[in-house]
Design goal:
Blueprint lengths: L2 H12 L16 H4 L26 H13 L1 H22 L4 E14 L5 E17 L4 H67 L5 H35 L8 H4 L17 H7 L1 H22 L4 E12 L9 E10 L7 H67 L5 H35 L10 H6 L2
Antiparallel strand pairs: 1-2, 2-3, 3-4
Length: about 475
């Protein structure tokens, strides 16, 4: 019952004693200091678009379903959320240092003894008390520590978003690669069927004495090479499907039935509004996390500097006692005390801690700047890769049409005896190469688009506060 008044007395007494917080006040770094250009060095659309749910732009319901499953059940995201909870509890602990600590105690004792007349004496006593102590934040060490803990909690929140968008992109990338493997398997099996026919025709022509056995052996070798590629493609497909299963928080084989039906490689929009470099830095959660880590490191300099100055503690206690419960509050005693301490000699330990904190802040700044430049690098590389994949796809489409026509003519001429098997074999090889080349280019286009969405920081809500972002997970 005496705890609250005692705590208020101590807080009121300490309020005028609290001084300024030592250490540097953090200010965000300007773009010029981070090396951010006004525009990308490659052609890019400078307008902005909503990238929060970029996977829907591929118009593939199954892809969207898998990404949503990963957002809800991925284990790496769950670990990031757990680290965020831990960081928030550290903030609660840091804030607690700004308030007094109050403890209460109570006791009862009973003494029995024999009197001189042979009787028994029964003496009982009761006591109750409260103690309070407060470390006066004269030079702002506790406030700087709270500031650092708050920035670290915000960084952990952005880390959740960074893991989230990475998982989304990895699910989409493996989905595209699984569809590519299906397309390559279909190409190989179609070619295998044609090569079976070619082998049979070559064997008939050898038996008829029209050609040498070289044609049959060449056809047999070509068929075997195509057949040998199928197990590798099946193994790659299985790996992609297994990876998607794990990324969605399931067993590796959980999605095999769901992905078994062959579907085309998903195609997204032909272009993405990348905005300007400054937009990318605001959108990228890893960059924002690095900036918050820099703010935390800057605040920790103040924590270390505060240890160089005197430390003031004040406290007090209230207590009462009596022989009976009814007389417990007849007499109440109390006391107040203050203690000030200053380190005189520690072999340079405290000053070394300040220099260490300053070095850590410098390192955090370099890490922040590195994350900024890496974000710009990722964006420009993805923009160029997307354009290159689109150009390759256009050329492979032309190559496929020409190779298909060439193969049809070569088959007709070989069956009519107007050309040799080498010409047919070359035409069939070119057709398979063009089919796989077009499939690979389409896959590269989709994966480059995914990489661009990731590089631009898509996959989370830019307008969310760190707290809202984490609570949504």
């Amino acid at each position: 019952m005496a705890k609250r008044p005692l705590a208020l007395i101590l807080a009121a007494a300490a309020l005028p004693l609290a001084g300024c917080a030592v250490g540097p006040d953090y200010h965000p770094k300007p773009a010029s200091e981070l090396g951010v250009p006004e525009a990308y060095s490659v052609p890019a659309d400078s307008s902005r678009e909503d990238l929060a749910e970029w996977w829907k732009k591929f118009d593939d319901p199954l892809l969207g379903q898998l990404v949503e499953q990963g957002r809800a059940a991925n284990l790496d995201v769950g670990q990031a959320v757990a680290r965020l909870r831990q960081a928030r509890e550290s903030l609660v602990q840091a804030r607690a240092a700004l308030l007094p600590a109050v403890t209460a105690s109570g006791g009862v004792s009973r003494n029995q003894g024999v009197t001189g007349t042979g009787g028994f004496a029964d003496n009982s006593s009761f006591s109750i008390g409260a103690d309070a102590s407060y470390q006066v934040d004269l030079f702002g060490g506790n406030r700087r520590n709270t500031e650092a803990a708050g920035a670290a909690a915000e960084a952990a929140s952005y880390d959740v978003a960074a893991v989230l968008i990475s998982v989304e992109a990895e699910i989409a990338r493996n989905y595209v690669l699984a569809r590519l493997a299906q397309a390559q398997l279909a190409n190989a099996r179609d070619s295998l069927g044609i090569q079976d026919d070619n082998l049979q025709i070559a064997q008939w022509r050898v038996q008829a004495g029209l050609v040498s056995s070289i044609d049959a052996e060449t056809a047999r070798a070509q068929r075997a090479q195509t057949a040998a590629s199928i197990p590798s493609l099946e193994s790659a497909y299985n790996g992609y499907v297994s990876r998607i299963g794990v990324l969605t928080g399931q067993a590796p084989g959980a999605l095999k039935g769901q992905l078994e039906a062959v579907k085309p490689i998903p195609a997204g929009p032909s272009s993405v509004a990348a905005g300007i470099p400054a937009d990318t830095l605001r959108q990228r959660p890893d960059v924002r996390s690095a900036e918050r880590n820099l703010a935390a490191a800057s605040a920790r300099i103040g924590v270390a500097e505060a240890q160089l100055y005197p430390q003031l503690s004040i406290g007090g206690s209230l207590g009462s006692g009596g022989g009976t419960v009814g007389s417990l509050f007849d007499v109440i005693t109390g006391r107040l005390f203050a203690n000030i301490a200053q380190t005189i000699f520690d072999g340079g330990r405290l000053k070394s801690q300040v220099r260490s904190a300053e070095a850590a802040a410098e390192g955090s700044f370099l890490a922040y700047k590195s994350s900024v430049l890496s974000a710009l690098e990722d964006s420009e590389n993805a923009i160029v890769a997307l354009k290159a994949a689109q150009d390759r796809a256009a050329q492979y489409a032309v190559a496929l049409e020409a190779s298909n026509n060439q193969a049809i003519l070569a088959r007709m001429q070989y069956r009519s005896g107007l050309t040799d098997f080498t010409t047919l074999n070359q035409a069939e090889s070119a057709l398979l190469s063009a089919r796989n080349g077009l499939s690979q280019a389409k896959s590269d286009e989709a994966t480059a688009l995914i990489a661009l969405y990731l590089a631009l920081g898509g996959g989370w809500d830019l307008n969310s506060t760190p707290e809202a972002t984490a609570n949504g997970q």
